[in-house]
Amino acid sequence: MQDNVILQMRNIEKSFPGVRALGGVDFTLRKGEIHALMGENGAGKSTLIKVLTGVYQMDEGEIIVDGQKAVIRSPQDAQNTGISTVYQEITLCPNLTVAENMFIGRGADLLVKQKEYEKRADEILGNLGIPARSRQILGSCSLAVQQMVAIARAVDMQCKVLILDEPTSSLDDKEVNLLFELMRNLKSQGVGIIFVTHFLEQVYEVSDRITVLRNGELVGEYLTEDLPQVELVARMMGKELDELNSLGENEEKKTQNGEVFYEASSLSSSDALPFDFTIHKGEVNGFTGLLGSGRSESVRAIFGADKIGGGEVKIKGEAVKITKPIEAMKHGIGYLAEDRKRDGIIADLSVRENIILALQVMNGFFKPISRSESEAFADEYIKALNIKTASRETPIGSLSGGNQQKVILARWLLTHPDYLILDEPTRGIDVGTKLEIQKLVLKLAEEGVSVTFISSEVEEMLRTCSRLIVMRDRHIVGELKGKDLNQKKVMETIAGGES
Amino acid sequence: MKRLKALLLTGVLAMSMVFGGCTNGGGSTGGDTAPAGGTSSGGTIKVGVVNNPPSESGYREANVKDMEAVFSKENGYDLKTAYSLKNDDQLQAAQGFITEGVDYLLISAAETTGWDEVLKSAKEAGIKVYLFDRMIDVDESLYEAAVVSDMSAEGKTAVDWLLAQNLPEYKVIHIQGAMGSDAQIGRTAALDEQFASGKMTKVIQQTATWDEAEAKNIVESVINSGDDFNVIYAENDGMAKGAVAALDEHGITHGVDGKVIVMGFDCNKWALRELLAKQWNYDGQCSPFQAQIISDLIQGKTTASSKKIINEEKGFDAKNITQADIDTYGLGE
Amino acid sequence: MKEKFMKFRKGGLGQLTIPLIAIAILILFNLIRDPGFFSIEITHNNDGNAVLAGNLISVINGASELAVLAIGMTLVTAACGGQDISVGAAAAIAGSAFVKVLKSGPSISGGTVLLAFLCACIVAMLFAAFNGVLVAVFKIQPMIATLILYTCGRSIAYWINGGATPTVDSPIIRAIGRFIPGVPLPTPVLIVAGVTILFMLIFHFTSLELFTQSVGINGSAARLNGINDTFIKLLSFIILGFCVAVAGCIGVSRLELINHETLLLDVEMDAILAVAIGGNNLGGGKFKISGSIIGAYVIQILTTTLYAMKVSSTDVKAYKAVVIVLLVVIGSPVIKAKFAKLMARGRSSKQRVSMKGAK
Fold first, then answer.
1. What's the rounded Cα separation, in Å, for the pair A279 and A371?
2. Which residues of A31-175 form beta strands (DSSP E)?
3. Does domain B17-149+288-302 have CATH number 3.40.50.2000?
4. 3-state secondary structure of A119
5. Is A337's CB within 8 Å of C221's CB?
6. CA B125 to chain centre
7. What is the DSSP track for C202-240?
8. ipTM, 2 decimals?
9. How far is A251 from A418, CA to CA, in rounded Å?
């Protein structure tokens, strides 16, 4: 048994300024095994992979490959040790041939012995059952085949450990099956495969073992057959099943019978499949589901953030057209985006400018908010939300994550929205601020504001939402309210029936 | 990426439309008079002109207009023209004229090399070749004559005129054109001689690369430094105008009764009008008018004494220029 | 007082520090070289007006076109994270249109000049909008997009007038390019002041500054806050088009002639440099118009200084390059960070000393 172990990572620790990304994680990979590495965002999966591939240097711990301690300081080291990675985005050259892509950077005689290399490439492709020819231009192959060529390249470099980081996210079902066949093929040749994905079904289809991480800690290592899907979800989200059961039924939340504020039927966008959705005045509801389930895409469609595909939208019973954020804003909708850095803050601008931005846009180009007025607004919200900043003129980029988030909240509160969409407002911020934000949401609802609240932490949503919309694989698969609002039920719905 | 390529391509196409290819002959000046002068075969004389495009410069514009005026239907000619800055295009156009069967081929080449083959085939076809404005590196036997300008003669004419003014002292601001161009070399050489001999003092010698604003800056910096000067020798009209703008702003008089003598080159009409108004003193010209000389040779009115015919260079003095001179010799409008 | 000093050390003056220091050094250098360099005197010009003259006047006068262009270039840089390299060629087109309209009538009246200027503006803004559409809608890098007009712009300018160097003869044009009778300052300087005030008003009465910066710093976030980033980018180009028209008309009026080949030749590089010297990030984002205007004057002082030193005008460009490289490197984030570290170390060692003293 022990002989079978090909890679062992022991007590790996890694910290970034202010964050402990990995706190003593163990990971073991055996020969001829497909090992799924699971965890929600921020669990430490990618940090672990980056330590293993030499992109990051670990602070503490050791890596043992084939029984020998390995020193991995760079991606080159990792490759020499026999660890290869195939990333989600193809990192090959689409305008070169398949053979060239397989051998480029691995010998100066590539051009001289072209024929020889092509022959060898065809052999490898044949052995692995990859449907590509060596002289084909890579860019002319499908994405799946391109990915397979990347894998073939890795395999030919005598890799013992193959890391597949979200390899299926841009493939269709047929292509996924092809890839799985290749993975099984490699497995039978004794390669150890680390499979990172967020598609639960795929994990159960192809993997032998599962390691779950959460918040930079190891939750546990399981044989896939021993771990039902619902338990996997529970472990990823941080609740033991027993504990979930014992939480029992939540107190009954008052159901909203007020007037409907927003109503969408078969609304779709470039990124979201058609869905129906309704929210009442003063209601707090939530979208839940794993990463990639389509929860963010759906609320983005409500806000008109992506290209709208179709569907009908009514606000207070009147049909309206929302195809652009500004139109949503004019109808009283605010949207705090999921990715604060990318879609939220204007890093170099001051706290003050960040706070007034949305209101300014609504006021229009020719009605600038005066300096004194904007200062008053900024001071008001810095005080109300307890934003910790050196001054209102401090660039928002230099604030902590929690305070940045409060500034963005202030930005939307300043527009006095009727309906506020908060996508992961509490991600990556400290517990104190999380509670403040939850309280704020409930207070807003009392004042009659409708709120859609999205969080990876189900507990948080249960505390605030009176209704939960559950998504899986880009479809709404359930709507929970009243008695059903409990962890167990949520987990079951997310995991999909078979508990 | 594709989009970008397409755009670049469009840009290139636009470019080639600007500089490239055959422009249609300016020809159709609906003439009704009978051919004048002794035409050979009773019909019209077919002339093919390969030239640079008129957009190249004011000089070229005048040159092209002159060709079209002289080789007109009224004068018994059938004119075909091709304009390009590219030697290859010019070669093709010349070959085209030969195939078409013109009687005479007139060439101002973009480059001095590469013309052997074309001129030989012209000779075989019995077509007579005249070069104008620019020489070509071929055997003399391949063309009848070359009518060209002599830039250094032009510079010398100007400097001789300056010496003839008999100033007690010459303190010269010398504003040069783009360094290395034929015009700059010719117009600078004569003046450099005077600086070397000590007859004239160089206050400053700077290139403004034909840029009017740059010329103004140069003169302004001399004025601000307090250095004394009494001659501005600018190697084209535009730079002379820039220099005069600096003088005007600083209250320094110029022209016939002024403190500073202003000299320019090219003989643009507007510049000659400055002369007529006595604001400038001298304007030299590299003559763009070769058509009449060639026409006379074709019709046998004159004969060439040598293969290289130097076009007479003009220089105008503010004291005796007339409106007629401006109308006849001025370039542009 | 101390607070102010601390603020200064923290970079309260921020991005203006380096261009201001550069101007100070250049002035000091000239004063040592020639104490009379900055003397200003009153002379009577050939039109009989009492006017100011001297190197200082030459600098602020000569930098006019550059200063106006730098303003527009700053906005394009901020919004699009790239530069327009076609401003020189576009100015030649605008100038040609200006002259074309001026020469269309028998005489040039004030109305003609106004009409001609409006036409120049429209033409320049149309060409700028063409660039803007390539950048904002088709997402082509600004330098690549404007390369097209850069290469063919001067030929288009030629087509407008047909001739090589048409001249305009009018006392009004002369007044615009040189001096208005009774006003001792060159008119281009007054125009720059006017344009600067115009932009101050625009910034005061619109949200242009906030929106442009938002789009430049984080286009995605700006879009999600309802800002039409395509429009803002396009607008920045159209504004630059206006600046190009102003600069082109000043250039034409100065010489009373349009030469499509030489009008504002190579000015695009100087305009970009002015933006950079002004401490603005060429990658877009936060900007200070005042920085770019100061940058324009830095470049002009440098040029005037080199001319006054009788440096050959072919060498001037090389000397300019050396100084500008120095300025830009000193202003680079790497050097700034090093400098800040040095300051911090200085501070902390001082603190340690004072703490010891307290003990």
1. 37
2. 34-38, 60-65, 68-70, 83-86, 161-165
3. no
4. helix
5. yes
6. 31
7. HHHHSSHHHHHHHHHH-HHHHHHTT--HHHHHHHHHHHH
8. 0.87
9. 27
* DSSP strand pairing (A209-214 vs A34-38): parallel
Side-chain half-sphere CA neighbours of A94 within 13 A:
7
The single-letter DSSP state of residue B44 is: P
**Can you list the positions of beta strands (E) in C18-148?**
41-44, 50-53
> Under DSSP, is residue B106 helix (H, G, I), strand (E, B) or coil?
strand
Q: Is C151 on the interface with A (CB under 8 A)?
A: no
Give CA torsion, residues B209, B212, B216, B218, to 10 deg: 0
Contact with chain C for residue A394, Cβ under 8 A? no
Please check whether the two domains, A2-244 and A260-495, share a CATH topology.
yes
CA distance C79 to chain B (A): 21
Say whether residue A360 is in contact with chain C using an 8 A CB cutoff.
Answer: yes
Q: What CATH topology corresponds to C14-310?
A: ABC transporter involved in vitamin B12 uptake, BtuC (1.10.3470)
User: Is A260-495 in CATH node 3.40.50.300?
Assistant: yes
Tokens of B165: 């003014």
Identify the helix (H) or strand (E) that includes residue B248: helix B237-249
In chain C, at which residue ranges do the beta strands (DSSP E only) sit?
41-44, 50-53
d(CA B251, CA A380): 62
Binary contact (B212, C166; C-beta < 8 A):
no
Domain chopping of chain A, boundaries: 2-244, 260-495
Domain boundaries, chain B: 17-149+288-302, 151-286+317-329
Q: How far apart are CA C303 and CA A219, in angstroms?
A: 69
Closest A-chain CA to C215: A346
- Asked whether the beta carbons of B331 and B269 are under 8 A apart, the reply is yes
The sheet carrying B45-51 orders its strands as B77-83, B45-51, B104-107, B128-133, B145-148, B308-310
- Chain A nearest-CA distance from C17, in A, is 19
Of the candidates B259, B258, B260, B284, the one whose C-alpha atom is nearest the C-alpha of residue B271 is B284
| CATH topology agreement for domains B17-149+288-302 and B151-286+317-329 | yes
Helix pair C64-80, C208-217: axis angle to 10 deg: 50
Q: Is A358 on the interface with C (CB under 8 A)?
A: yes
Digitized pLDDT (tens) for each residue of chain C, 359 residues in all: 444 444 444 444 577 888 899 899 999 999 999 888 888 999 999 888 899 999 999 999 999 999 999 999 999 999 999 999 999 999 999 999 999 999 998 889 999 999 999 999 999 999 999 999 999 999 999 999 999 999 999 989 988 987 668 899 899 999 999 999 999 999 999 999 999 999 999 999 999 999 999 999 999 999 999 999 999 999 999 999 999 999 999 999 999 999 988 999 889 999 999 999 998 988 899 999 999 999 999 999 999 999 888 888 888 888 888 887 888 788 777 887 788 778 777 666 655 555 444 44
What CA–CA distance (Å, rounded) separates C271 from C66? 6
Sheet holding A318-320, edge to edge: A275-280, A260-269, A308-315, A318-320
Residue C119's identity, in one-letter code, is C
In chain C, domain spans: 14-310, 313-359
Q: Which fold has domain A2-244?
A: Rossmann fold (3.40.50)
CATH 3.40.50.2300 fits B151-286+317-329, yes or no: yes
> How many CA within 13 A on the CB side of residue C314?
11
pTM attached to this predicted model = 0.77
Contact: C308, B251; criterion CB under 8 Å: no
- Which chain C residues in 211-270 lie under 8 Å from chain A, judged by CB atoms? 211, 213-214, 217-218, 220-228
Query: How many whole angstroms separate alpha carbon C237 and alpha carbon C73?
Result: 8
DSSP string, A371-426: HHHHHHHHHHHHHHTT---S-TTSBGGGS-HHHHHHHHHHHHHTT--SEEEEESTT
Contact B238 C314 (CB under 8 A): no
